[in-house]
Amino acid sequence: MLIKGEKVEQLFDPQVAPFPEKELLQGILQRTLADLCLDSSDCRKHRRSAYEWVMESSNEDDPFTFSYICFQLGFKPETVRNKMLEIYEFNKKSNKKFKYRTRINKSSL
């Protein structure tokens, strides 16, 4: 899975967000991906909210919108959106669920 020519694991790379402010933004994208991967019926509200946030059309100048966060981290919003939605659709249709990791070792990139 590629994001801006790299792997989806880039969302979890600590080098992408070397400053606390960017770590927060990175954490928001990580949580969004985690919420999209939830498969429990109890978690539908979180999954739906994450989906709507990713899909909203927003300006990269509006703080804490999906586009703003992607731009601040150096990602193309449309590319990240497409990959997140690909994972979302895969989880909806498959018995095999996407496994994400909260931390990625530098050697695994």
What can you see in these coordinates?
This protein has 109 residues and is mainly alpha-helical. It has one domain. It is built from 4 helices and 2 strands, in the order E-E-H-H-H-H. It has a two-stranded antiparallel ribbon with strand order 1-2. A hairpin with a 2-residue loop joins strand 1 (2-3) and strand 2. Helix 1 (20-36) packs across helix 2 (44-55) and helix 1 packs across helix 3. The longest helix has 17 residues, at 20-36.
List keywords for this structure.
disordered C terminus, 4 helices, 109 residues, 2 strands, globular, two-stranded antiparallel ribbon, 4% strand, mainly alpha
Mean pLDDT: 75
Main β sheet profile: 2 strands, antiparallel
Q: What structural class should be given to the helix and strand makeup?
A: mainly alpha
What number of structural domains do the residues give? 1
Radius of gyration: 13 Å
What's the quick description here?
With 109 residues, this protein is mainly alpha-helical.
Q: Helix and strand layout, with pairings?
A:
Elements: E1 2-3, E2 6-7, H1 20-36, H2 44-55, H3 66-72, H4 77-93
Antiparallel strand pairs: 1-2
